[in-house]
Design goal:
single chain; about 675 residues; alpha+beta; Jelly Rolls; 3 domains; eight-stranded antiparallel sheet; about 30% helix
Length: about 675
């Protein structure tokens, strides 16, 4: 039996853990099939009613909005057909399957119900695009773009001269070929009907688009009526707690607060940071009072509740290998990692990668080599391929009403019916190298971005890699070369006093805590996003991306995911635009909750293994829908353009399920 359990000898494990207990890191126990269990705490009927009504309170406005959009399209269709009322119409039901996504061919947005479709070529168009065409300003599904990040050679990456132009590769792998579609005028007819677009835009141009529905006729209107009735009955049956007030910010000495910003005249410089033990006593209301305001939350000591399962990457790899046949094992001896210096994918032997995780790797010139695995293992079947790790991660998550992927009463993603194709919400692991020093080029980072949904991210393992004195000297020399290169290319950078005196410039550890955290987080407030975008557009040419090429084109400063704000840029951002992020270090075992709509970035201060799970909370549904509308305006070949969350479809199913639950929990005779 092969055993790898850090810090414990094989003899100690053999004596302490019979295989039948399934509680060690031997192969037999790691490969034991474990099913995700329901939360241990029984939820009372009264709690279920409160949660269901609380969710319905947020869902109803969006159900009404979706219904209103459909009413407008139905009324227009009645006029096109010369009918006095939509009730006189018969619409054709679209052919759709539960295991497929129906999306707009123009803007890639998911279609939940009413849409227009070509009877000849099956081109499908969402109602938003239809309306924009009628208004003469089609914004969704913009023209394809080409990103230019030339590979000027490895010497250029380290501050040297570029290769001759004849040897430079231009273009970004996985980008478009550079073909730009001609500007084709796509107009609606005088009566509002829309014709299928020409072949250049993916259509046939031969037929008018017909109005079709996916859900049963009047499903949404009937559901809105039921939801209003149930909501009114529930209000009479039981009240809803007021979560808009929280007094913890008034006490700066509160042990459950962590200072994360220094905004003048602001009362949200502290992040709510309870321990996993405290939240059992306080319940959900305190969490909700911060969450509803779009604030991140940190839960400390989360992994301490675990059973002792090792999250050391080689243990995870061995468990994963045990679930695969020999052909797959040989195929996956090489892992695909991102090299953070050139921001390109590289293949590396898995043992070499994991050895570098604990011992570090470096380039020939001694510059630290920063590699990271994203969404590993390479599948959406984390729980199948790593059953014990998946079970342990899910069962130990705080605020399970939101985070449990199957039984979370306040998680919209759990309301999708069986058999329907569901979005991949995780869990997923992220394994990356890291060091405390901010290099400025090639740092182990997750660049600034904004997720479509809420997320919880747990730091499950860290390894500290120390650089030698020789490496420190080489880094200083290479940084000077980088700075000289920036000046030659008119990229303005300014060395701060802290950088002159201390290469490990990053956010100071929390007061009273000696140990450095594993990852440095910057999470921006939603209200600061316009200024953040303005700063990035103004200073975009000061940033480098693939092959260390300067960023020449900005489509969307956040959704492009091409920027990481260094310490210097964060200071300039505050100086010029008066905004700053919540900045804090995530320590081992801490769970970070990130609200949808909050741009954020991460830098690894140690080699880190993190596991993340997405969820959709009712409080942030408005942000998920706003982001969906924002992403549909991106160029059609933009990596963030696709609507993978299908939040409108999720909303409709969530309302349906909540109404059913309340009808069962609060029978009519109890209210009367």
């Amino acid at each position: 039996m092969v055993i790898l359990y850090p810090m414990i000898s094989e003899e100690e494990i053999a004596a302490a853990c019979p295989v039948c207990r399934g509680n060690c890191n031997c192969n037999e126990c790691l490969l034991r099939a474990v099913t995700v269990k329901k939360p241990q705490r029984e939820v009372s009927r009264e709690e279920k009613i409160i949660h269901a009504h609380y969710m319905l309170r947020f869902l109803l406005p969006f159900l009404k909005q979706i219904h209103q959009e459909q009413i407008m399209e139905m009324e227009l269709e009645a006029k096109i057909r010369g009918l006095s009322s939509p009730t006189e119409m018969e619409l054709q039901q679209a052919i759709s399957f539960d295991d497929e996504r129906v999306y707009c061919n123009n803007c890639k947005t998911s279609i939940a119900d009413l849409h227009r479709s070509c009877p000849k070529c099956s081109y499908e168009l969402c109602l938003s695009c239809c309306q924009e065409i009628r208004e003469g300003c089609l914004r969704g599904g913009g023209e394809e773009i080409t990103w230019h990040f030339p590979d000027r050679g490895i010497d250029y990456v380290h501050g040297g001269d570029p290769l001759p132009k004849s040897m430079i590769e231009v273009g970004l792998p996985d980008s478009s070929s550079g073909h730009h579609e001609p500007s084709i005028e796509w107009k609606a007819d005088h009566n509002g009907s829309v014709r299928c677009p020409p072949k250049e835009m993916g259509g046939c141009r031969d037929s008018l688009l017909e109005l079709k529905h996916i859900l049963p006729r009047n499903w949404i209107s009937d559901m809105e009526k039921k939801a209003k009735e149930v909501a009114a009955q529930s209000c009479e049956f039981i009240g809803v707690a007021d979560t808009s007030l929280c007094s913890c910010h008034s006490s700066r000495s509160n042990k459950d607060l962590r200072k994360a910003a220094a905004r003048e005249g602001s009362d949200d410089n502290y992040v709510y940071c309870p321990t996993s033990g405290d939240i059992k006593d306080e319940g959900l209301e305190h969490f909700q009072s911060h969450w509803i305001k779009g604030e991140p939350v940190i839960v400390r000591n989360e992994v301490e509740l675990a059973s002792g399962l090792s999250w050391e990457p080689m243990v995870m790899w061995r468990a994963l290998s045990g679930k695969m046949n020999s052909k797959k094992i040989n195929k996956e001896l090489e892992v695909k990692a991102i090299d953070c210096l050139v921001w390109c994918e590289v293949e590396i032997n898995n043992h070499k990668f994991f050895k570098g995780y604990t011992e570090g790797r470096m380039h020939r010139n001694l510059w630290p080599e920063m590699l990271k695995l994203k969404d590993w293992p390479p599948s959406n079947l984390f729980e199948e391929r790593l059953p014990r790790h998946g079970d342990e991660f899910i069962s130990s998550l705080p605020f399970q009403e939101y985070t449990h992927p199957k039984f979370g009463l306040l998680n919209l993603a759990t309301k999708m019916p069986e058999g329907i194709l569901k979005p991949d919400m995780g869990p997923k692991s992220y394994i990356a190298y890291g060091i405390p020093e901010e290099l400025g080029r090639g740092d182990s980072v997750t660049k600034l971005h904004c997720d479509m949904s809420d997320a919880v991210n747990v730091l499950t393992h860290t390894a500290e890699v120390n650089l030698s004195n020789r490496q420190h000297s080489a880094i200083k020399m290479l940084k000077r070369r980088h700075k000289d290169q920036d000046e030659r290319e008119h990229i303005h950078t300014h060395e701060t006093d802290e950088e002159k005196n201390n290469d490990s410039a990053c956010f100071p550890p929390e007061e009273g805590i000696e140990e450095r955290g594993g990852a440095l987080w910057d999470i921006f407030r939603r209200q600061d996003v316009p200024k953040l975008r303005a700063y990035l557009r103004k200073h975009s040419k000061e940033f480098r991306h693939i092959h260390c090429s300067p960023v020449e084109k900005v489509v969307h400063p956040i959704h492009d995911q091409t920027f990481y704000l260094t310490l210097e840029h964060k200071r300039k951002l505050k100086e010029e635009f008066g905004i700053e992020a919540w900045t804090f270090e995530q320590r081992l075992g801490e769970a970070v909750f990130i609200p949808a709509g909050c741009p954020h970035q991460v830098r690894n201060l140690k080699s880190c293994t993190k596991v993340a799970l997405d969820f959709v909370s009712p409080e942030n549904l408005h942000e998920c829908i706003r982001l969906t509308e924002e992403l549909r305006l991106l160029p059609r070949n933009h990596k963030a353009n696709e609507d993978k969350l299908e939040v409108k479809k999720m909303t409709l199913h969530a309302v349906n399920q909540v109404v059913k639950d309340l009808q069962e929990l609060v029978p009519t005779h109890e209210i009367e």
